[in-house]
Amino acid sequence: MSQRTAHVGAALCVAIVFSVSLLSCFWERKPDIPRRSHEFPDSPPLLRVCVLEAAEKCEVRCDGPVAVLNGPTVLAKWRRLPKLTVRPAASGLAVGNRQFEAVRIDLEPLGEPLIELNGKQYRGAMRIARRTGGRELDAINLVDVESYLLGVGGCEMSPNWPAAALEAQAIAARSYALRQWKRRRRSHFDLRATQSDQVYGGASRESRKVTNAVEQTRGVVLAYGGLPLMAYYSACCGGHTTGAAVALGERTMDIPPLRGCPCNFCNPAMHVAGTATPDSIYHWRVAVPKAELAAGLRELDYVVDAVTSVRGLERDASGRSAKIEIELKTGGPIVMTSRDFRRMVGFRKVKSTKLTFSSSEDAIEIEGYGWGHGVGLCQWGAKGMADAGHDWMSILQHYYPQAEILRLWKDRPVD
Ligand SMILES: [Zn+2]
Questions:
Q1: 275 CA distance to ligand 1 middle (Å)
Q2: Distance, CA 399 to ligand 1 centroid (Å)?
Q3: What ranges in 231-327 are assigned the alpha helix state H?
Q4: What is the pTM of this model?
Q5: 320: left (phi over 0), alpha (psi -120 to 50) or beta
Q6: Is 4 a residue whose pLDDT tops 70?
Q7: CB neighbour class for 37 (10 Å; exposed up to 12, middle 13-18, buried from 19)
Q8: 107 alpha carbon to ligand 1 midpoint, in Å?
Q9: In this predicted model, what pLDDT tens digit does every residue of 282-339 receive, in sequence order?
Q10: End-to-end alpha-carbon separation of the chain, Å?
């Protein structure tokens, strides 16, 4: 063998060994391998959840030691925080009789006992921030996303529902929270603790079944287009979910996972006997007096003598109308978005935009299906799927078609 042939042979051997090791790496990849990119954190991020807005004062309490911080600066330490009132003060904030020269303080428990705000317990720390103008304050819970979810699950879904439905709910809520966390970096909080984001009751609303669902799905999120999915959900779709672009005015959310899909599972016939979607949620009727509609329109500054009839316009595949046309005795019809119509009559009275109308002498009879905006996961449908033996994965694949399912983190951080 010449020296040149020997070199070529050695190079070939190296190349083969390198290729084999590359291939074995590829084959060893698991489907739930964590996604590392700047769009997806690889450990649970700290969320800023606004639990109290524009209040004149609030009460705080903690049975253990608490540090008072302004950014990294420790302003005070207490061995125990008795129930004290926090108010805006001339130069900052007052906690009981103690004044702090800061418009924002973080109350951080240093031991096991949790911080209390207005009688409710919260994990993590509590930030109190004086508003511009100086008369009101906001309270913002600083809490990691997994602990946050423990206090969301039981507020957004019955904690007695089947595990697969609670798990799907936890993943949708985690994905929604992460997307808002990315979206609102420049705001002074990431999420509101109300229906305008996700209802969050803190540690006071935790339960064993919800905790299990959050732990079983730890770190799992829905994603689409390289971002966490804005995984909307609502109580009951009434037979077909709808698109985020029209139903919520979210033009950038016109993507396959949020365009709507058929749903047979919220139909009462699909549930375990005795636990079906109530008629008041799935298929309901309400009569709204014509005089009440006319008064509502006048409050919105329309000139109205009397309402004669109402009909839905621009019906989509789900049967929802984008707009509502109201015929008047005199003058042209009034056209408004279905969301505005619901707001005018009342969200609890007109529970969805999947509506048909008929007219009697004095009233408009409304027949409707479902409760809520109808985008993304249908919660009663998720329960129906879980009752029928589906797991969280098939529930999510059904309601968010083409979304990716990723596990961003799994192991608990070392205490
Ligand atoms: Zn449904």
A1: 15
A2: 9
A3: 244-247, 279-282, 290-299
A4: 0.86
A5: beta
A6: no
A7: exposed
A8: 42
A9: 999 999 999 999 999 999 999 999 999 999 999 999 999 999 999 999 988 999 999 9
A10: 62
